[in-house]
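Lecture notes, unit on protein representations.

Consider one protein chain, 495 amino acids long.
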Amino acid sequence: MEFSEKLRDCFDEMVVYKDLKKTNFFSALSLPSFMRDWLLKKFEDENGDFDKDDLARFVKKFIPRKDDWTAIKNRIVVEDETVKFLAKISVNIDIRTGEVSFALPDFGLGFKETIIESPVWSVCKEDLVKSQDVWGMVELGYRAPDDFDIEFEYEKKSSKAKNSRDGKIKLLSFKNFCPYNIDLEEYKKARSEFSIDEWINIILGAVDYNASGYQSEEEKLTMITRILPFVEKRLNLIELAPKGTGKSYLFGNVSRFGWLSSGGVMSRAKMFYDQTKRREGLIAGSDFVTLDEVQTISFTDADEMRAALKGYLEQGNFTVGDYKGVADAGMILCGNIRKEIMDADGYSNMFTELPTVFHESALIERFHGFIKGWNIPRMNDDLKVNGWALNSEYFCSILHELRGDMTYRSVVDELIVVPDGADTRDTEAVKRIATAYLKLLYPHVQHADDISTRDFKRYCLDRARRMRDTIKYQLGLLDVEYAGKDMPPFTVREV
């Protein structure tokens, strides 16, 4: 059985035909990969063909651009129409009043301008509270202001009656973007039908890359290392890479569960908790937060941010004023690297490339591993997926669900032999990275004897150890206290 036929047979309707060379018109629409694959799944026939005109009409009707918002608002508020379209929505529950409101961040519609009335909230709340931002089909209408203004002749002006309501855009209905149930057991069963080489190629296709465009297994594995925070809670990584290797695309387009911040200003309020708005930040509503182009990011208060990051990266909790929060988002720092530093292959001081907020060993030590982005080829047409591949939305939803499965960590704990005197942070970093690799590459493994010692060592432990070793070496360049300290000699226990 050919590979593509085998893939379709095992995953059935979760497979779509992707040809990024022929579907560039999706880029013009600024649609993320998961929405593109949703559309392909909706319009493709069994051969992977679709009518571009039909798809274009659907997009025009249900996927508006940001500059369409004024026209939409006119239809809702002035023309008193109901309007339905696909959008990213977030909700807010006012603790003081109990009122539920929503925002459409991509259109600049804020919480103060909206309302979700009780009957609607009771129907759709299960979908809307799953994460900070949820994609789906929203149906909007208008709740007009109370019409009992009283005009006083002697004042020649009107005043609104006490307790009267302002006009607001209201949510009439919501349908979750994900049109299918996630069956982890079926996914694990399907994985067992493929070799490790085939599975690596499947993963690459799921995130829009063409496996045949890579020259070695190492290039492929370095590429999919970027996906580890998608599947493991609070996995903190640093990647420095040449320009054009696809960092922004992967972290910003493939998964709806993460957040990409590129350059600009970052504050503690935006990242953790805004005391003025009484609203949790990016870290609380995401599986991962990526600070891309990290060299260009400025922090409103470097000391404040450093202290908040150290606490969060270590324990997964944060305190802002009187507010105490808990989150499980991973933190990823992505930046470019100069050729002369890259050529040293990790043996020169790389972290001088990072903003000064990260020039502290106690903070850097809390990052679990380093990705050598120079082992990933620069993006070109040969690396763009062209053929049958897993639906990105489905794949990333699976990874999201696997984050909470502790079975894999118990397997890792059983397999890895930790030597006496091993540093606790080194041990945790290696185990956490190895667990992420196990979930990603061997999701069907449920017990230690389900995977060979050789495979676990090669694809999980050794790679985790090398990723941590780079952090360890760089710590020695930042701080003499860490200089000359080797990684503990972790080994694999025979079972």
